[in-house]
Amino acid sequence: MGGDGLMRDVHVILKKALNDEISKDEALMLFRKVQDRDGLLELLRIASKVRDDEVGNEIKLMGFIASITPCTVDPPCRYCFRWANKKLFNWDDVLTDEELTVAMKTLLEKGLKRVEVGGGTYLGEEGRKMTFHKLSIACGASRDVGIWITNVSFLPEDVYRLKDIGVEGVTCNLETINEEAFRRLRPGLDFDLRKRIIEESDKAGLGIDNTLMIGLGEDWGQPHPYEDWVEFFFYFKRFKNLRIIEVHPFRPTWGSPTQDMPPGSEFETLKAMAIARLIYRNVDISGAHTVQGLLAGANLIMHVYPITKSFRPWGKHGIFASKIERLVGDVVMVDNLFEVTRNAREMGFEIEIGC
Ligand code: SF4
């Protein structure tokens, strides 16, 4: 943090943040002025304390099942994994009804309380029909596991039907609040439609989860768009059912039009997570599988026990030899509970389910 006056400003904001949510101007000030390790450590210390005070010491877990629909978006989003692997979000990737039922029951037996059910954006009437069908199966398999849908193959008016089916929440990721950047990076999608789905989901009483992607669309040497990140966070302030915030750094996908773009800054990602915690005191913030995320105020681990077709078992840890279990047909589960919860356990947090 450069200069005594600036440090004082940051200290004043962080002191206040211990008890009260920060304002838009204060969030922007933190993004701009926290520019070294001392500033970061202070920001993390306060974000950790707010997490402890407001949501407690327990780390929540979320499972993952994919895919329930293919993606027909054309052209694909310019950073999508579809560029690297043509099978991803293709028909090869889609679980049958029976496989989806087995996947749900498996996660229920594991004791998970919530699961993200993912898929590509399958446009048109067929996509809507398939989404309702697959969600009826998933919800019918277990009423004790809250289902969060991420495929966005439906329309704003459909969210009431999703609620009736028993869906708990909707993840209709914007990843940026900058409409120009969204259109440039995701030319096959409709920014306004996504916003309307989020708005309608909130009205329907569905939970809202959304992701900010740090570095998305930024070029080499370009200043970080702090104003956009703050806009993103405060856009979601209006929704009473906002339940989950995710902050991830952009990772260039090999073979995609963005493969030579700079990866998102990890330093800025941590700052954004911590600042999100100072705004959203008791919303779940993902990233609690890493030491850094835990220090930044995260309290949720996503992608626990990911279940997918065998060609894409992910959620495997970078160092651990994660166990992969075949469940049914070509569907596998990565048994990653130990490794994704280890940091939290060793740092003294309680984990929602034991391992
Ligand atoms: S909607 Fe999702 S799966 Fe489809 S192209 Fe975009 S990022 Fe890829």
Task: Describe the protein's architecture and organization.
This protein has helices spanning 4-17, 24-33, 37-54, 97-110, 124-141, 159-165, 179-185, 191-204, 226-235, 266-279, 291-295, 337-346, and strands spanning 58-66, 114-118, 146-149, 169-171, 207-214, 242-249, 284-285, 300-309, 323-328, 331-335, 350-351. Helices cover 40% and strands 17% of the residues. Strands 1, 2, 3, 4, 5, 6, 7, 8, 9, 10 and 11 form an 11-stranded mixed sheet that branches. The mean pLDDT is 95. Bound molecules: iron/sulfur cluster. Residues 71, 73, 76-77, 80, 82, 89, 120-121 line the site of iron/sulfur cluster.
* CATH homologous superfamily (4th level) name: Aldolase class I
State the distance separating the first and last CA atoms. Answer: 41 Å
Number of helices: 12
Cα-atom radius of gyration: 20 Å
Strand content: 15-25%
The run of helices and strands is HHHEHEHEHEHHEHEHEHEEEHE
Number of strands: 11
Name the descriptors.
355 residues, alpha/beta, TIM Barrel, globular
Please give a quick description of this structure.
With 355 residues, the chain is an alpha/beta fold. The protein is built from twelve helices and eleven strands. It has one domain: Aldolase class I (TIM Barrel, Alpha-Beta Barrel), CATH 3.20.20.
Topology of this protein?
Blueprint: H1 4-17, H2 24-33, H3 37-54, E1 58-66, H4 97-110, E2 114-118, H5 124-141, E3 146-149, H6 159-165, E4 169-171, H7 179-185, H8 191-204, E5 207-214, H9 226-235, E6 242-249, H10 266-279, E7 284-285, H11 291-295, E8 300-309, E9 323-328, E10 331-335, H12 337-346, E11 350-351
Parallel strand pairs: 1-2, 1-8, 1-11, 2-3, 3-4, 4-5, 5-6, 6-7
Antiparallel strand pairs: 8-10, 9-10
Helix pairs in contact: 1-2, 1-3, 2-9, 3-10, 4-5
